[in-house]
Amino acid sequence: MTKVKPDHIVGRIVVHELDQAVTALTVAHALDCPIALLSATGAARSSGPAWWRELVTQAQTLAPGPGAHWILDCADEPGMALAALREGITSISLEAEGPVWSRVSEIAAQCGASLQRPDRANALDLAGSNNPQNDCKLYLSTLPEGVAKPDALG
Question: In 3-state terms, what secondary structure has residue 40?
Answer without folding.
Answer: coil
